[in-house]
Design brief:
The chain is α/β, with parallel strands linked by helices. The protein has 9 helices and 13 strands. The two termini are about 35 Å apart.
Amino acid sequence: MKNKSALIIGGMGMVGRQLTKLCSKEYGEVCVVDLDYRTPQDLLQGVKYQQADLTFKSNASIIGEFDHVYHLAGIKGSPLRAKEKPADYLPMLQFDSNVIEAVGYYQPDWFLYTSTIGVYPPMEEYRENLVWHKVPSENDRVPAYIKRMGELSCYAIRATYGYENISIVRPANIYGPYDNFGDESTVIASLIKKGYNDDVINVWGDGEPIRDFIYSKDVAQGMLHMVQNKINVPVNLGSGVEVKISDIANTIGEYFDKEVKYDKSKPNGDMRRQMDTRRAESVGFKPKYTLEDGIKETIDWYTNV
């Protein structure tokens, strides 16, 4: 792909940074668009950076300048944020609409849309063709419906313009360097922060809920793989491994030598969120990082920034 150009929308996020590194080795030209690109030491040599807000429709015209477009931008938050501040996610409706409408108009060689595990309704195992028959979980229905609308918008430009060159990926619970370790952090980032700063690691709920976690570097590799191989059906990006929240807490507790306690007065959330990864494997993708290795790398990064 050295003769092609790539645009990475949301390229300064947790996964976007990893994808930018990968793309800088694969493409002749790479440009990152984000709301802000932090400080100069964060920038990769040879990669172009542009600060822009694509909630303004006119800014989405940049899509017409690139061969491959990766749309990673999104609003990440904890289950508490999704429940108590769902309006925080509303800007993505306009953002996604502008980006996908521009894709339909300019029709780049390939487009990748990043959806989420949250689009699935509660069930034992999340299979790609079982999204639409039921509603998403009550625990994150607003961000889930917004991502569902993003997927439907992709279907709309496919039906309207006959544009088939679209990859849709649905990542599981992502963690890694550059995650949000602030007030709206999700489970692994939150527990790492507690392990580093607190005497005791307090965990919401009883630790029994099951999740599927995937390292940010694996997600980036999966995205690139889908575009390189022109996969135009939705694909789950997960580990395929069932992990209890208590397993995560104990791993992080052992690393920091801290006691783990469970606050059963706090909600568990959905009890099971497990990805079916057979479609990803059938098109040649499997994650490389174990949970332990990914958590260690994330802790090492967090404790050294």
